[in-house]
Design brief:
Layout (H helix, E strand, L loop, with lengths): L2 H5 L9 H8 L10 H19 L1 H7 L12 H45 L5 H14 L7 H22 L8 H19 L3 H23 L3 H13 L1 H9 L4 H8 L1 H9 L6
Helix pairs in contact: 2-3, 2-6, 2-7, 2-11, 2-12, 3-5, 5-6, 6-7, 7-8, 7-10, 7-11, 8-9, 9-10, 9-11, 11-12
Length: about 270
Amino acid sequence: MNPYLRLVRAPAALTVLGDAVAGSGGVLRGRRLLLPLSSVALYWAGMALNDWSDRAVDAVERPERPIPSGQVPPGAALAVAGGLTGVGLGLAAYAGGRRSLAAAGALAGAVWAYDTVLKDTVLGPVAMAACRGLDVLLGAGPGGRRAALPAAGALAAHTLGVTALSRGEVHGTSPSVARAALVGTCATAVAVAARGPRSAIGALGYAALVGRAQLAALEDPSAGRVRAATVAGIHGMVPLQAALAARGPLRSALAVACALPLARRFGRKVGPT
């Protein structure tokens, strides 16, 4: 696999396409259909920047990654992060004008702050949750930010738990962290299910996919179980997005849900973490 595709975790971008759809209530139209591509560009930028920031640690813990293995020079990874950030901002401006550009700018700032400053601090999971929430708000149309807040909150809460748990991917985690992530998943599923019968179906799928892996990590909080739960949490974004979009046209929710089998299939070639 091309090392640059592995650098940006290319297939994992399928799990962010639904953010803007959920934020829009499933009604993206016209140029605004390009907003999910802005999300993808900014996500890929964050992945490249993450590996550039972690290159010294990865040289010890994950030497097979593109930068420590010598397949991608550090300067090239940083250039990829900068270039993709520019692409994401440009797409947002073209798709939604000044309002969308402002949202994308806030998201880009949060991504860069997380990867370069906040990641290894106590605020790291909160910053990552903010990134996901802002990505959802990117999809909100004029006057639609307030209506998009519940969707943004649900995906941010899920991201908070997944990020906190993911810190144990190399050395394992504590039962308390695994328990907190599982409780958060259950609470998020219940809150989303309350939005209506169609949302409840997606929420049930989300809870089954993510909760089962997190329960296994709670029973055995070793690095392998935590890594599996983190992958499930990333893929679990898709049914959660579909459940949130289900209040709008059903076709939008179904289109979002179609990303899950693709993400899982291609995730076997390029890991999402």
